[in-house]
Amino acid sequence: MLRELADATIIDADRVVHAVLRDDAGVRDAILATFGPSVLEADGQINRSRLGGVVFSDPRELRRLEAIVHPAVCRLVRGELAALTRNATAVIDAVKLLDGDLGPLINTVWWVTARADKQWERLIKARGLSETEARRRLAAQPRLDIYRDRVHVIIDNSGSLVETRIQVCAALESVGTILTAQAPRAVL
């Protein structure tokens, strides 16, 4: 919706993470050293499903993985932002980048949420996760109450796309003054 309504360039942190896991030998070596060979495929690539099984069952393991992956992801995201034209609008679609060093680049923070039952249902349907895996992933997600002082807009996408679109349009209108003074502009 933001690509269409605000002519935004979307930087999808999941896509960046997948690229880092696939292409960054240093990250792959660090993951291997930290989590062992069971997280690798026969061709040496990271098996994200197996790695997810390890890290989403133990918050300490997730923090260890994030310490390895997040610096590389932040470098790539910064590179994508730097490549934009001066008046471009960028949307960084990310779960945990508020915890990283990209915060100062962000003009306005949007928190997209849904009721827990919708999140759970979507993880099972869209990602093919088991009920147990979906619960673990949801438990690992950051909570809004921790970040509320840094969030400018909350979008609840529990309903229909039309209902979500109405919220997005209202939010774009309300943050327009924040975005007009910045270049490149970034929305997280």
Observed structural traits:
disordered C terminus, 56% helix, Rossmann fold, 188 residues, 3-stranded parallel beta sheet, mainly alpha, two-stranded parallel ribbon
Structure in a nutshell:
This protein has 188 residues and is mainly alpha-helical. The chain has helices spanning 2-6, 13-23, 25-35, 48-55, 59-82, 116-127, 131-140, 144-147, 161-180, and strands spanning 9-12, 89-93, 110-113, 153-156, 185-187.
Provide structural commentary.
The longest helix has 24 residues, at 59-82. The chain is built from 9 helices and 5 strands; from the N terminus they run H-E-H-H-H-H-E-E-H-H-H-E-H-E. It has one domain (2-187): Rossmann fold (3-Layer(aba) Sandwich), CATH 3.40.50. The strands form 2 sheets. A 3-stranded parallel beta sheet has the order 1-2-5. It has a two-stranded parallel ribbon with strand order 3-4. Mean pLDDT is 86; it is low at 177-186. The chain has helices spanning 2-6, 13-23, 25-35, 48-55, 59-82, 116-127, 131-140, 144-147, 161-180, and strands at residues 9-12, 89-93, 110-113, 153-156, 185-187. Helix content is 56%, strand content 11%. It is globular. By secondary structure, it is mostly helical.
